[in-house]
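Re: that backbone. Tokens:
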């Protein structure tokens, strides 16, 4: 190769690098200007500006206030146009009318913790049960390729990409095993480019890497959440962690130090020990101990969100005694966290021993109420609080003018009895009613 050819190659490579740098720079600028993070599959909305109206309905807006009886909500295209009492909202001529008599209108439910592997049937079923938005914390992007071939409506899907784990890993087909700080920076950049709207830390990643993960994610304006077993929750929160997935992630920070040490050593030796070992650890936790209130004070101070996924851990009398006792402590701790001021959000984790098939989310709402939340608080945890957790509250999570029309009609009054959330009658996604009988191929 002559000097001229070499120069051309160098210039070409420099030009490519310049283009890549410009692209990433524009990405950073766009994120900085629009902090609302996006789903990977924005649904299609109505093709015209048709106005639709939901009338004679009980309005529960997700913001925590008392329900509004005999309300009217107007939707134009895919946006909420107006919401208020019937005597203050005029339904225009030609509007498509839905009668909500005997029903409550809520924002579409948001699931902070759901896993899927190219299963469009399952996602559509979740949507028909009222969950219009989900986040999968930790599965690779390839697990959602089926979304791009879906013919039926799917919930909005937020992804974090493969979780970041330490060697030798746990679920290695779902993980990126971290080699060092430069590897972390490269991975997060690539995740953002692929549409990632968060990062998930898994439990074998050492604490020494948290700072790099958090700083890099913050550069891209995306949140970081974690499933903890070996790293104590208080240490992770001090490092800057914004979200803790699973109530069990708090276990080692609450337990007697010797019990916590034995648990960590057992998990270090065998990943699967945690499955039953969690219950044994939690059955011994003294929730009246000073360390429990200290950890909660820390979580409140640093605004660390908790997605407890109680449904997946639920055990009752009839199960092993230590399991039932351990779960009771988990449930009580969530109630204590809520009372202390920790933001609690709703995540189904797909299933639970005592949940009906496809309705783990509704069971989670019931358990949040059992932990001490009011039904309205559980509804806010399932809507606006999760929208904030996803950093998409300017688009989703409440029934307010200008927001996207993701709505559900529920028979009865879930602000009085949370069990009404099982009676989903109609679901609207992005301004269009979902065909709940649609066959998904």
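Recovered sequence:
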């Amino acid at each position: 190769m002559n000097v001229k050819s070499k120069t051309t190659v160098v210039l070409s490579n420099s030009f490519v690098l310049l283009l890549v740098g410009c692209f990433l720079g524009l990405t950073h600028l766009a994120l900085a200007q629009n902090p609302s993070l996006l789903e990977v599959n924005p649904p299609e909305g109505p093709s015209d500006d048709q106005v639709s109206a939901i009338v004679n309905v009980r309005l529960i807006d997700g913001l925590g206030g008392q329900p509004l009886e005999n309300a009217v909500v107007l939707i134009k295209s895919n946006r909420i146009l107006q919401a208020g009492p019937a005597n203050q909202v005029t339904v225009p001529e030609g509007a498509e009318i839905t009668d909500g008599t005997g029903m409550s209108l809520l924002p579409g439910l948001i699931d902070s913790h759901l896993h899927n592997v190219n299963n469009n049937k399952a996602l559509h079923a979740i949507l028909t049960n009222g969950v219009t938005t989900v986040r999968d914390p930790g599965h690779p992007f390839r697990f959602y390729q089926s979304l791009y071939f879906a013919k039926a409506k799917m919930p909005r899907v937020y992804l974090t990409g493969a979780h970041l784990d330490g060697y030798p890993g746990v679920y290695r087909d779902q993980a990126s095993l971290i080699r060092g700080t430069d590897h972390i920076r490269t991975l997060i950049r690539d995740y953002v480019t692929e549409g990632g709207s968060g990062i998930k830390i898994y439990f074998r990643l050492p604490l020494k890497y948290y700072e790099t993960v958090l700083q890099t994610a913050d550069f891209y304006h995306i949140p970081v959440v974690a499933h903890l077993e070996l790293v104590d929750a208080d240490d992770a929160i001090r490092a800057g962690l914004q979200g803790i997935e699973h109530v069990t992630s708090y276990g080692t920070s609450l337990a007697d130090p010797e019990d916590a040490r034995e648990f960590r050593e057992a998990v270090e030796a065998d990943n699967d020990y945690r499955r039953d070992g969690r219950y044994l650890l939690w059955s011994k936790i003294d929730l009246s101990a000073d360390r429990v209130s200290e950890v909660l004070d820390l979580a409140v101070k640093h605004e660390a969100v908790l997605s407890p996924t109680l449904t997946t851990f639920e055990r009752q009398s009839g199960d092993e005694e230590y399991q039932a006792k351990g779960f009771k402590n988990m449930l009580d701790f969530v109630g204590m966290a809520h009372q202390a001021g920790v933001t609690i959000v709703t995540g189904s984790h797909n299933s639970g021993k005592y949940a009906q098939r496809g309705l783990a989310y509704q069971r989670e709402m019931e358990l949040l109420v059992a932990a001490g939340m009011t039904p309205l608080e559980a509804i806010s945890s399932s809507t606006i609080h999760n929208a904030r957790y996803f950093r998409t509250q300017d688009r989703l999570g409440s029934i307010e003018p200008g927001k996207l029309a993701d709505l559900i009609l529920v028979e009865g009054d879930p602000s009085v009895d949370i069990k009404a959330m099982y009676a989903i009658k109609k679901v609207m996604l992005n301004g269009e009613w979902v065909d709940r009988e649609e066959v998904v191929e």
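The chain has two domains: 1-33, 110-399. The first helix runs from residue 3 to 33.
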